Amino acid sequence: MNQMFTFHHFESRTHHVFAVRYPNHFLFEFKGVSRKEKEILIDVSVSTSLKASDIQSIFDSNNVNIEKLEEKTDISTSVYTLKQKLPKSADAQLIKQGIGLLPDSEDRVFLLYCEKKVDILKPSSANSFAFFASPKPKKPQLESTQQTQDASTDNQSTRDADE
């Protein structure tokens, strides 16, 4: 039975999505995430009960003469647990669920989706930000330039005097 329910994994830049297609008479209940094995766990209840009156109406609408039907089967609902491993990048803390109808079909889709983990660089101290900060613009050093010109003029004067 578990092979009947196939998880489809979709991925965007920011999210992981898991979808399972199923007929209307199945009920899905999101059980949670196994932290130890990092798996999604879903309980699926399969209710296949049929009413005698529904079966009787099928025969009646097809002009098949059958006397009044009585239910003779004691049906209990079967429960199966589906498991799906989560990718390492999935944020298992924030899994959300939903149910949708497929276009042009009576089948439903059980959806689970979660965001991808984002690695945040945390500096060890306030000084660590200095590495990432843009360099401060340097002030023009006119005085040192003037001093350099004065020094070169003095050197030229000294050379002229020596000659």
Count of beta strands:
7
Helix-residue proportion = 10-25%
Uncertain residue ranges:
none
- The gross shape turns out to be elongated
Task: Give the topology, please.
Layout: E1 8-11, E2 15-22, E3 26-34, E4 39-46, H1 52-61, E5 78-85, E6 96-101, E7 108-115, H2 129-132, H3 142-162
Antiparallel strand pairs: 1-2, 2-7, 3-4, 4-5, 6-7
Task: Describe the overall structure.
The chain has 163 residues and is of the alpha+beta class. It has a domain at 2-115: Immunoglobulin-like (Sandwich), CATH 2.60.40. Helix content is 21%, strand content 31%. It has helices at residues 52-61, 129-132, 142-162, and strands at 8-11, 15-22, 26-34, 39-46, 78-85, 96-101, 108-115. Strands 1-2-7-6 form a 4-stranded antiparallel beta sheet, with no helix packed on it. Strands 3-4-5 form a 3-stranded antiparallel beta sheet, with no helix packed on it. A hairpin with a 4-residue loop joins strand 3 (26-34) and strand 4 (39-46). The longest helix is centred in the last third of the chain and has 21 residues, at 142-162. The protein is elongated.
